[in-house]
Automatic annotation (TrEMBL):
<dbReference type="GO" id="GO:0003919">
    <property type="term" value="F:FMN adenylyltransferase activity"/>
</dbReference>
<keyword id="KW-0274">FAD</keyword>
<keyword id="KW-0548">Nucleotidyltransferase</keyword>
<keyword id="KW-0547">Nucleotide-binding</keyword>
<keyword id="KW-0288">FMN</keyword>
<keyword id="KW-0285">Flavoprotein</keyword>
<dbReference type="Pfam" id="PF01687">
    <property type="entry name" value="Flavokinase"/>
</dbReference>
<comment type="function">
    <text>Catalyzes the phosphorylation of riboflavin to FMN followed by the adenylation of FMN to FAD.</text>
</comment>
<keyword id="KW-0067">ATP-binding</keyword>
<dbReference type="InterPro" id="IPR014729">
    <property type="entry name" value="Rossmann-like_a/b/a_fold"/>
</dbReference>
<dbReference type="InterPro" id="IPR023465">
    <property type="entry name" value="Riboflavin_kinase_dom_sf"/>
</dbReference>
<dbReference type="GO" id="GO:0009231">
    <property type="term" value="P:riboflavin biosynthetic process"/>
</dbReference>
<comment type="similarity">
    <text>Belongs to the ribF family.</text>
</comment>
<dbReference type="InterPro" id="IPR023468">
    <property type="entry name" value="Riboflavin_kinase"/>
</dbReference>
<dbReference type="GO" id="GO:0006747">
    <property type="term" value="P:FAD biosynthetic process"/>
</dbReference>
<dbReference type="InterPro" id="IPR015865">
    <property type="entry name" value="Riboflavin_kinase_bac/euk"/>
</dbReference>
<keyword id="KW-0511">Multifunctional enzyme</keyword>
Length: 311
């Protein structure tokens, strides 16, 4: 899979079978769409291509209240790579100029001239262009490519969508989110330096850099982290950490059991297994430590039972 940024015309790529979308989370609905795209592309002798955007358009339009991001661009590309269904990914910068592009210009300049689209597969609710004026009928009337709409994909009787995944995560329903994603929910990021408070109270944490304004879930969780030293169990806090911090920045802090090494600079993938509780503010540090001890005990109990089930 090759990834391209900027004007695709400079890469001199062949005509393609294309789909368009944010593909946030790359859930089961996205996966079914890409399987269909692969079949249609193979039947036409075309490579498959995906056009996506960074930042998420809803982040651009709602900067004061952005939706929770399910996956970073890096994670999204990794999920797509793992599927093995996409030949080319085009990442377009979603800025004021792109947002103001008319629907007809989007078709002419992006789909026809830029990407040389010969087959286009879109979701049944796809809209595009300034003020979302573009629709399926406009695309299907274009003589340069064939347009088809992907019917709704159901997972456990519900429409698979990024919005529904966010709702499940916000409610702490990790198993419900997993049924829509086809895998456990995860966040990856680089370990950065923090206040180092955890080590002074007996619970050193790996502080994961979060590149987006708002995560899709908050609270205290049982986790497993993929590290250079293998998969390690732990407990994680994801939120604003109100007891010891007064900044509006979200933090992912992971305490790994039976580990005493240096993780700074490493990239960790944190899989969320079970929500223990919502985030809370404590009157003093001793109350916070007592709660962390309780959370760690609950997480160890859960991980032990999980190991027995998998044995």
């Amino acid at each position: 899979m090759q990834v391209f940024f900027g004007d695709p015309r400079r890469y001199q790529l062949p005509a393609c079978a294309l789909t368009i979308g944010n593909f946030d989370g790359v859930h089961l609905g996205h996966q079914k769409m890409l399987q269909r795209l692969r079949l249609e592309a193979d039947a036409r002798g075309l490579p498959t291509a995906l056009l996506t955007f960074e930042p998420h358009p809803r982040e651009f339009f709602a900067r004061d209240n952005p939706p929770g991001r399910l996956s970073t661009l890096r994670d999204k590309l990794a999920f797509l790579q793992r599927l093995g269904l996409v030949d080319y990914v085009f990442v377009y910068r979603f800025n004021r100029g792109f947002a103001g592009m008319s629907a007809s210009d989007f078709i002419d300049k992006v789909l026809v001239l830029g990407l040389q689209t010969k087959y286009l597969l879109i979701g049944d609710d796809f809209q595009f262009g300034a003020k979302r004026q573009g629709h399926f009928e406009m695309l299907s009337s274009c003589p340069h490519f064939v347009t088809e709409a992907m019917p709704t994909v159901l997972a456990m009787g519900e429409r698979a969508s990024s919005t529904l995944v966010r709702e499940r995560l916000a409610a702490g329903d990790l198993s419900g989110a997993e049924s829509l994603l086809g895998r456990e929910y995860q966040i990856s990021g680089r370990v950065v330096h923090g206040k180092k408070l955890g080590r002074t109270i007996g619970f050193p944490t790996a502080n994961i850099h979060l590149p987006h304004l708002r995560p899709a879930l908050q609270g205290v969780f049982v986790v497993q982290a993929e590290t250079a030293d293998g998969v390690l169990g732990g407990v994680a806090s994801l939120g604003l950490n109100p007891t010891v911090s007064d900044t509006p920045d979200y933090k992912l802090e992971v305490h790994l059991f039976d580990f005493a090494g240096d993780l700074y600079g490493q990239r960790l993938t944190v899989r969320f297994l079970k929500k223990l509780r919502d985030e809370a503010r404590y009157d003093d540090l001793s109350a916070l430590i007592a709660q962390i001890e309780k959370d760690a005990g609950s997480a160890k109990t859960y991980l032990t039972s999980l190991q027995r089930e998998q044995a």
